[in-house]
Design a protein that fits this description.
392 residues; 13 strands; Aspartate Aminotransferase, domain 2; 2 domains; alpha/beta; globular; Aspartate Aminotransferase, domain 1; 4-stranded antiparallel β-sheet; single chain; 7-stranded mixed β-sheet
């Protein structure tokens, strides 16, 4: 029997985090030098105790927790997102312009399903978030790379030059994964103007908005006239409330696009995780102070990266971006980053992702870069990380 496979799936690269985990299989790490894992940008701690207690009550006392719910999510959660976003961004978002999804990745997949057919194009700044690239590849949609250079900020004029008759959207991530950089409000505004003028969508993935170092609104896009005709915002509750295993994300867009996305969501998952949605709502209403403390901790780790990096800079390393959960660095060795990353497992007990996983094949910038995801190591752990990297 001949096994048949979808050629688009076969042509898609393996999940990078899972691929990296294979590098540590069978490797023994001594007790005095345990593995430092900075490969995945997700909290490993469970939700705070108060939230888990609330979740237990939902499981025991709210029978609706165990049943199908609305395809576009719990109305109360959608309304809460709209309300809090209006305060944060100064906009006028309504509940019907918010949908809850099974994680932010599903939000991206749903939005792309409403925008693109096979053969269409989406512009992605490089280094890009690999799951965005993977989803486009699976749908035979061309990911057009937009190089960002040393500062990791995309250029609007360069993006304009890449737009063709097949371009359907530009997708940005801010704070950025993998680069860590926060896109200035003016830059996001310029991309909005470009997309609005050219009649394409602007997708802004703000998964890490809760850990942005700025205290003011990161952009004014929700205040723009007819924003919903151009802007599509994506968000994740996983990072804010440690709900990674419950898969809760959100998207904000026009009601017309929401009606089309509903078809995709109903077919794939029917409804988002009911317990996760209730947990997200409870978190939004009760954990503002706790979330502020988490933000302060992440900002302290970002500061620790800056404080300890000079010891690597003295050896030829450079830092390109640092923020949210990530530092993106270039190494000084005459060695491809994917080979260096595997050597780091054995030589210094560190697991990180190489830049080759975030750029098109053959892009030389990937050979020199590494992503350090510091969400799960504190300032002391960051100091140990750099001590080990200094010995390479």
């Amino acid at each position: 029997m001949i096994m048949q496979f979808n050629p688009n799936i076969m042509a898609t690269f393996p999940p990078p985090v899972m691929e990296a985990r294979r590098w540590i299989e069978g490797v023994e790490f001594p007790a005095d030098r345990p593995l430092i894992n900075v490969s995945q940008a997700a909290p490993v701690d469970p939700p705070p105790t108060a939230l888990r207690e609330a979740m237990a009550q939902f499981v025991l006392e709210d029978d609706e927790t165990h049943l199908y719910g609305p395809v576009l999510g719990l109305p109360d959660l959608r309304a809460e997102v709209a309300s809090q976003w209006n305060v944060a961004y100064g906009g006028d978002i309504v509940e019907a312009e918010v949908a809850i999804t099974s994680g932010c990745n599903q939000a991206f997949a749903a939005i792309i399903s409403t925008l693109c057919a096979a053969g269409d194009e989406v512009i992605l700044p490089t280094p890009w978030y690999f799951n965005h690239k993977m989803w486009l590849d699976m749908g035979a949609i061309t990911a057009t790379p937009l190089e960002t250079g040393d500062g990791l900020l995309p250029d609007v004029k360069a993006a304009a030059a890449l737009i063709t008759s097949k371009t359907r959207a530009i997708a940005l991530v801010s704070p950025n994964n993998p680069g860590g950089v926060e896109y200035p409000s003016e830059l996001l505004g310029a991309f909005f103007d470009l997309c609005q003028t050219r009649g394409i969508a602007l997708i802004v993935d703000e998964t890490y908005r809760d850990f942005d170092s700025r205290t003011d609104a990161p952009h004014d896009l929700f205040t723009r006239p007819d924003w919903e005709q151009t802007l599509i915002q994506l968000y994740s509750f996983s990072k804010a409330y440690r709900l990674t295993g419950h898969r809760v994300g959100a998207m904000v867009t026009s009601m017309a696009r929401m009606a089309e996305a509903e078809k995709f969501l109903d077919t794939v998952a029917i409804c988002p995780n009911q317990l996760g949605q209730r947990a997200a709502l409870w978190g939004m209403q009760n954990l503002e102070e706790w979330l502020g403390e988490q933000r302060s901790e992440i900002l302290a780790r970002r500061a620790a990266i800056d404080a300890h990096f000079p010891k690597l800079a003295a050896k030829g390393w450079k830092i390109q971006g640092n923020g949210a959960y990530f530092a993106y660095v270039t190494h000084p060795f005459d060695e491809r980053s994917d080979l260096l990353a595997q050597r780091m497992v054995h030589d210094i007990g560190v697991l990180c992702l190489p830049g080759t996983m975030f750029v098109p094949e053959g892009d030389p910038s990937g050979d020199k870069s590494l992503r350090i995801a510091f969400a799960n190591i504190d300032a002391q752990g960051i100091a140990q990380l750099f001590e080990r990297m200094e010995t390479l």
